[in-house]
Protein 1
Amino acid sequence: MPVRISLTFFNKVIFIIIVIILFFIWWTNYNLINEQNNDFLKAAVLLKVSVQNEPRSELNRLAESEADTTPTDNDVTTLDFQLGEDDFLEANPAKSVRYFVYNKKCKIPYADPFSHEALAVYTPAKLKLCTNESDLIELNYDRNTQHYKLHINENFVRKVKSLKCNYREITRGTKERGDFHSIIQSPVYFKQNQSLPRHISAIIVSCHDAFNASNMVQQDAFQLVQLHKKSKRLARNPLERRPSVILLGLDSISRVNFQRTMPKTAKFVSQPGWVEMVGYNKVADNTLPNLLAVLTGHRPHELHEHCDISSYGCLDELPWIWKQYKRSGYMTATGEDITRTSLFTLGLSGFIKVPTDYYLRPLLVAIEKALRTYRRFGYDYCIGRRLSFAYVYDFCAQFTSIFVQDLDQPVFGFFWSCTFTHDFYFAASSLDEKFNAYMQKFERQQLFEKAIVILFSDHGSRYGDLMDLSDSFLEERLPMLHIYLPPWFRKTYSTYTESLYTNHNRLCSNYDLHNTLRHFLQLNATTKAHLPPLKNCPSSQSLLHTLPEDRGCEDACIEEHWCTCNEFINHPHDGEIYYVGKLVVYHMNRWMLLHNYNRKCQRLALMNMDKAEVKVLREENEKQTLYGSIVTYRLCFRTFPEVGQFRSTVRYNRDIHEIENLNVPAISRLNSYHNNSLCINDRIAKKFCFCYPEWKKFDDYMRYWQNLKITTKANLEI
């Protein structure tokens, strides 16, 4: 009897365990099916919203300009819609989807500058001063005589028994190497309030012990904006008045990171007269092609019609926008805060002739060698007693003070800085107060009463911790763009002003900004037809003309890989995804072979797939559809040797198992490649290059790759 009871109890326990296991299996599969259905239905909702012919009126509300630096509902278009049983299997509360841009052709999702994941990696940097000493020498401009004078700080002199001071003129080098070489002339000793000759454009000032010249007390350097033309323009009729245009550029600052790291400056540019273009989308990977589109209206390969841009003398022949301003009677100036890897010299030959009326580069080339430097954030942070950045903005302040404030003459200025912002995505936080102080200085000089000012960037962060965030795709592709119109312009050209405000949350690109710079010179072009279109991007237009409400990336000449309009959903890392990833790496290796960089750089291999997304709509016969054979994937993957992180947008043909029209140079590198690619100079190849290690002997695999020459696809295996 006891045995039978124990067996019965045992059977019951076994039965209960089996029931629990079966229930667990059922529950797991039920959740998995629900998850898949939810993903599918979310895609269906996106499609439903995309293809509606008559979107609900509340879905098309336009955002007003921001009143504060913190994100508000006015930052974006807010889409509120109910998800019914037909949309989701389960009843859900009302959803709120936020967008920077929303129309039938383009939906750019909103990115929160102060999201939890962003703040988790955000580490503000502090500004470090280059010196704690007072200025011994001051450079003053006498507006009556229109001469610069050197003033010796007498309070400082009292601390020194005997002192002698001299200045050395800086001149640009010879024509052959003018952008790479500056000449420092012999010293000229001076006394208190010494006037400087008008031909001098830059100087180094040195003060030393009168009895011991090697005992240097202080050195400093100054740029001089000398006045060569005294004509003062008096424009009583506003319609005859030509606006000054000042471009202030900060490298690698997205709209989102600008709000996060530079709140004081962001608040300054939210004042009346400023318009933020939240739909501004870059057109290329790095600085050069994005700025060429703004400053010339062309991509690098399109400029080959003029000349090979890397060849000696080519830069002088290009159609720079400042040439148009100069022909229109404007005074022009350019300046940037680095020399060795500057916009016009990294992989390029620089200018033979000085490109603008006033040019900062000769000063920086000279003082980088003559004065002590301090490196921070990957660049020469301090040169002598000043921030490298400060030389650019002091130069801008001189230039605008003399011509805009004093003489009321029209000017065009391009001032670019990257020392704080290029390599360290949060270093801009240490620049914020300093930059805001310069903006307030410009305000005191009445620059904003008279000039159009554009604060912009080339792209967002391209590598580092920000690339690990969920909105990294937007971070990289949406640079900041703020445009200021002075009061007289807003009053005189109210239609243009209204159009600019209307465009603030519509998709626009570098080509539209270039057209806007052209438009400032042709303010009588009241319609799009009056402003000749760009041949390479005929659908681009001035931001002073109202952009079409339904505008997509093709209309703004933005390639698919850079386009933030398209809607993607997550895709599992299945066999097809890994196969496509291998195809992408194959094409990267092939590109390096075709350009002979295998002689310097190792072959890449796919290590892992970090993220895969698929475009909601497919293609068939060049039309978008749900069931086409061409699928667009967005892949984030890693390669070895070392670890290279990349992002690529790929059109994959499932019928023939091939990638279509992959633009290899457009593939994004998501982590820093500076130390990996020192063996080559090409801007594009550097992204894919891991130099052969000097410490390691070549094995047969390396030797085979280095000596390989490509003739057909058969030379490479996937």
Protein 2
Amino acid sequence: MGHMETVKDSVNTDISPYYIPHHFVLRQKAVTTQLRVVFDASCKTTSGRSLNDNLLTGQKLQQDISEEYRLCTVTFGVASAPFLALRTIRQLAIDEANAFPLASQVLLNDVFVDDVVTGSDNLDDALALQRQLTSICKAGTFELRKWTSNSSDFLSHVFNNDETYDDSLILSALDTDKSVKVLGLKWNSKSDSFTYQTDTPSRKCTKRIMLAEIAKIYDPLGFLSPITLFAKHLIQLLWVSGVGWDDAPPQGICDLWYQFLDELPLLQNIALPRHVLPSTHNVQLHGFSDASEKAYSACVYIRVIDADGCITSHLLLGKTKVAPLKRLSIPRLELCGALLLSKLIKKVITAYSSYLTFDEIFAWCDSSITLAWLRSSPDKWRTYVCNRIAETTSNVPAAQWHHVRSADNPADPASRGVLPSRLDHQQWFHGPSWLSKPQPEWPISHVNCHTDEERRKHTLVTQKSEPTLEFIERFSSLPKMLRIMTLQCILAQTYWILCARDAVRMRTRRCVRCFRARPVARQPPMAPLPAARGSVVVLIDNTLPPLQWRLARVQQLHPGSDGVTRVVTVRTGNTHFNHQYSNNPTYVYI
């Protein structure tokens, strides 16, 4: 590296040489200098002194850092920095839209923080877009750096035409398999595929270390959903066990964790193509959902038929959710999986709306109960099922839901969680085998989608009685019958005799039919006199409201000479007194 040279002259024996100890520091992720040599001139010799002890440090030439500076750029670390950075770029795109139309759309739609991720269908369009992006950013005093591409021709043009290039900024060399990070994913520009890289994890098993290692698996699009669910389930088991942050979990959890760590390096064998939309003739969207006692999952695939009739299918998006600790039935979990799938399909359609239109959309589920729910009216089912049916069918209509066998459902491993060695790459990353065949060759599933589970139950009680019309003969005219029957219907509501007149009058005024019949108000009939001792009566007191009338018990009857009882002795508390019958009764028999 030019740090030293070989000594060819004879060594002067009068002067003892000082050999500077040194070592190297290897930084494999560095872009330019991966190997750096570090010298230790403070190492003391046998004399007890070092080279630095015998050297003068010299005058201080660097500037004093206590000077005041004014910031001229957006500084990360303040709360408004993310908004200001993106808002500035957005305003630049709006201001320069007429001069740079292609670059303006890219800055509006294809920028994530400080990364511009975009592309073109051919080399000429890519170069034109690169020139516009460079120019529009210069207009805002921004400098685009670190160009990378899956096209070596594109990088050659950028390398040759830019006079201010720096070879350290061209991250993708033309003849290496170097990977770069794109929005958190590892992208191999030469193979144009996404890959995964894992570091050597700690073998110590504690709650804190397990969560830290699991958090390192970055999978924003859900490509590793079957594997990450295995880790999510371990987290749930940790919380259920109730262990402390630095305590060892139960042995069963530790065994699963060590097995997971042993197979974690297998993730480096996974490579997913970035470009899944060649020249298309027909594009379909297929979604699958499934559920188990552990979790429910959904995955979305794109099925492309090119101009030559070649059919390919690729995984676009996957997502899993761990089942709640409160037990739910499998049909309810299946319905939650269908709801999750409908949200993913809606998200994909929205994201691709500016690029393409899907010719057909298919949603697949292996639960006949869930399909029966989705194909019926939501109001037939209980509230939990009703709400999820309504939201699911609003995202994906019921006519687009179909049945699939469990063996052909790629969402099945994602709902159970598998280790990397047990993942079926073909089925998970490309869907069932029949998805790459013409549609007439797809399997036809004959399933009876009918169920009464979770159906709303209504109880109706009826009483059967034989109609009779004998009462009509008791009346001489129809108006008289209407007036009497109206009052009888009102009194049949089991009114207490108290305030009965007001209740009848109020009822007749509210009823149009009763009002037209002009019913005649009657005096309330006197309550029958008690027939024996011990009867309970209500003493009427016109000076008090009815609810304050007192209760009394009949103690003695006093019949007259004709045998008719007109006077009784009643008791209220410790008081005995006689009451005499008259046309205005002072008590009511209850």
Protein 3
Amino acid sequence: MKELIPLVNKLQDLSTKIGESLELDLPQIAVVGGQSAGKSSVLENFVGWDFLPRGTGIVTRRPLILQLIHKRSGDTNYAEFSHTGNEKFEIDEIRDEIEEETRRETQGEKGISRIPIRLRIYSPNVLNLTLVDLPGLTKVPVFDQPKDIEYQIRGMILEYIRKKNCLILAVTPANTDLANSDALKLAKEVDPEGIRTIGVLTKLDLMDEGTDARFILENKLIPLKRGYVGVVNRSQKNIDGEMNIKDSIKAEKAYFENHDVYHDMANKLGTSYLQCILNQQLEIHIRNTLPDFRDKFLMHQQKLHDDLKKYRKYLMIDESSSETGLLMQILKELRVEFDNAMGNFEYYELSKTPNIGCKIFDILHTKFPSQFSRITYHSPSRAEIDLAIKNIRGYKVGIWTPDIVLKALVKKQFNEFKLPSFVCVDEIVQVLCDGFHLYTRNLSHFPKLRDEVCGIITSHIKNREKICKEVLQQFIDIESGYINTNNDDYKILLNKKKRNSHVQDDHDKVKIYVDTYLEHANKTVKDFVPKAIVWIIIDDCKKFIDTELPNSILQNKNFLSLMEFSQDEKKEYDEIRSIYEACTEALEIIGDRPPVVESDFKPATQIQQPNIATTLWKRIMIFFSKCFLNETN
């Protein structure tokens, strides 16, 4: 498990950099306490150096996420901030950088900010721990602090400690009433059973003479499942006298070993013991959360794997592959996409948006027929019919109405068929061009190739559009050029109209002939237009993609440059692959380790107590030793 905590720290940095791409509630130890409770001193003792800002009032004004990373013996000590990249800081430079970064974010002398400062300290003298130093609890605002400063700090602290996988280090001075501890009160709100709270008693050496905290350290006053650990920090006098942390820890150890009350439990007190306990508890806590971690990593890894699949087949080209083979693969996929978009059982988004085939069907069989039905024909008046008959007969006398009258009156109406037919072609072409731009998404990895393909296909469609319009124009001209009154469908329709009409003279007869033939021609053209569009444009596009498109691209003298992968896509691929590899690495380390049911940590109440005779004998020996030393002196 030693390698798991550094990995968690690595994932914390990763989650900060990539934002929502890897949102994981990673295990941390949050240090909570009132102002001047000794939180900063506890943290400095962990690290072994003076590096945190000091002063009066609220000194910690932004959350400080402190990652202690154990390095091999002999390595130099250094620190890194996430907001400065890979810049390395000496230990004596950390305090100034924290203060400067705090001022930059808070924009004031006493304000606070929820945005954390991430600090990593690498040293052979630390254990792998991740701690969060939070602003000290306060009651009354001072100077330019906002009136709701108490609630702001409280909300900030709760934001961290309410997470179920956060261990709470509740720091309380031993020379105050534990029942009034702000840290324990806040911890109890989110951890009422005391399951993830570790109590830390500071300032044991400052308690009133004749008092001690043994009853608290034995976990009897306000019980916590993880118990209490007592520590003795440097006093302000020690700090002013430049006592270093190493000497401070030695003095702390000596204090407990020589204390009348604490000497028999000295091995369970002090900063060094607290370090080991925190590291142990963090490892146990991580192990117990491994099932959730594994599920989150697996889900995220699967999503990343799916994202990578769309890249890898274009990037992972072995030596036996070639740009030509890759091009053929891409164009084959484009053809499949086009087939699916035209209407195919393999289309995977059937219920989301209309595909190209659906839009084309709507144009050909709903919109176009509706437009055709709205064509307004100029029905010849009695005077126009009479003039036409007279002009054709001339000076001759006729017994019946000549056929040429019908042809003359019908022919000029055929131009009405042209506009809706051409509009239908335009709409189909627009749908195809838009569709090809949409369904060339697989070509987004090759922007130059995509532009070339879209340009070639669009040009081809425009060419077929021109041909289709020419064919439709020819068809309309053919229909108007030969008025076939011997057509069976026309004769059936004409007879039906004659039976339902009252014909009085030649004028009525000509009008029926003209209206019937125009109705017959309307059906003919309306039936022909969709057939021509499908055959000339749509079906041809399928053939073009299969045969002519590859040849057109291969003949391009800049073919190789067209196959260059998008740099933006390559960068995105590298980022996704990096996160994917991190998830894979985490899963390999996590493996199938079972959770730990109980902690190995035993609070002071579980320490095997010496019997009364032994305790009495030790105290007698200490008394006589002191008397002997006094007499000697």
Protein 4
Amino acid sequence: MIRFRFSLLQTKSKSRQIIQNLSGNIRSGQLTAFLGPNGAGKSTLLKCLAGKRKSGLSGRIFVTYNGCKPRITFSYYSQNDVFNELLTVEESIVYASQLKFTSKIKALFNDNKIKQNSLLSLTNQSTHRLKAEKLIEDLHLKKCSKTVVNHCSGGQRRRLSIALELIFSPTILLLDEPTSGLDSLSTLQSIELLKKWSNRKSKPMIIAMVIHQPNAKLLSYFDNLYIISSTGQCIYEGTTVKLIDHMSNFNLQCPKFYNPSDFAIEVASGDLGLDAIHMLAEFQRQHFKDNLNNTNCIEMTKVIKETQRHTFGDQLWTTWILTKRCFKINLRDRKQYFLQFNCVLFMLLLLYILHLDNKVGINDGCIQKPSVDYIKSLQVFDFLNSTTSTFPNWAFIFYSSIFMVFISMLPTLLSFPLEVSIFCKEHSNGWYSMSSYFLAKNIAEIPQNIIFPLIYCIGSYIITEQILDPIRFIGFITIMILLSFLTQGLGFFISALFVNNIIASTVIGAVVNIPLLLFAGLLIKIQSIPHFLRPFTYISYFRLTFESIMIFIYGFDRCQPIERLTIQSIKQDFGDHIIPIVKCVYDYDSDLVDNMTLAIDYFNEMIDKSNSFALLAFEYKDSDINMCLFCISLEN
């Protein structure tokens, strides 16, 4: 015999005491109903019992049992229905059954006689489908079994919620208003099924639920009642058949042919006077027996932890099932992928129009040895021409990183908060571990994190006519894909922090990128940033992306080696008359020769570092790619 007990429970909000010194016990094999007027604290009590409400709570919640310790599992159903809207009713139950597979495995391995047939049956898809079909039939969901949840009625969704909890066969099942929104027939059918499951001979369950004013026939299905008054006190705990007799002992006579539950709620709401509530509450306090002789007990917090505990093997199995489920949901969520795909196509079209006559990737950005033509270009400022300058290509690289960040992060910021409520419900009820969920979620997101960056990178690389080199092309794509994974993960993190506020998560997601943009190195050179801030620039994925792509595009010996500059090479390029010119100027400015020597030395030192003007402008080296890739991988 297993009992679910609570003693002297009380909790309060900032303004008032919600429940006051509530004590009681619920036996296995019995269906218990919590009754009371609105605002009495029924849902609050259920949240306290389920471990969902801890602030301001005092008292004790525990489970008692006789003999050897059984495996006690727990499940809680809240008022809000949360589902994977793109799965059908049947698929939702089948996946739940497959996730329950881990608890069955534990039971088999705890048994000394492990039957191979039992193990094979649990891994068989048809076994889970048969169980789902049986539950669908019991809850009269056959009509909508092939319908996606998003298209189901409110009543069908309620019955699906009950099915998802029953498929786990938990030892303790707490339900908060599972019949709200159901018609009288559906309510009766659901209560009949709960009664049947609670009274099972093989594995009886402890089922307690909050319900509002059941009719007389519905009330008869409950074995026990727990009635809470408007003051947050218990005024009755006992069997359903003894309710009227108990009330009559306090001169509270239920009229003939009157619904007992309606009468009990009238008493609990204070319609018959507060004195009646005080008398009934005092009687319950005096006669509550908390006898723990010859019984073993375990705190409810340990029961919840045990329910949520998963071995390594469990996590592998649940990760596999969750990955399949996430893939199926993603394939059906065509709207999101359609919008992302069209956004990428629009940006490629815009790039094509902007760079129709300006192929920014053609210029190699290499340092040129001083020549007559080069001097002429300096005289007419032709070196600033966008067709010969590398700056437009730097802007393209920088813009590409910004676009990839927002196209990867924003969909996550908007959609993930809607999924977190599903995760919280399923994780707290022991369906799977947190690590299994996030691993499966990230695996399922791999295709979109590869396909969309791949389309954009191939299109933009060709449009801007970047250098056709396999290593540089693959490097460009790889960096963009890593950036997509990184920013999507950041989107998950921000959404988890602001799970109840999509607007806040979207705003924070945009604002957090502003300081990271400043640390990219294009708007403000890294060397210009104060020394104490420079290590923080490695947090900026904009800097890591920009620097990595710049090195891939302009580094790794793209530029041919240049001969060192000497006076003799200058004479060869400009002719022998350059010497008389220098002598003539020397008579006017004796420092010119020294300045020319310094200029030659500076040019030689510059080409010793790198032959690429693009890399020298930001003081990048080929070896810096290792640090960038390490930081990007670490942040992922």
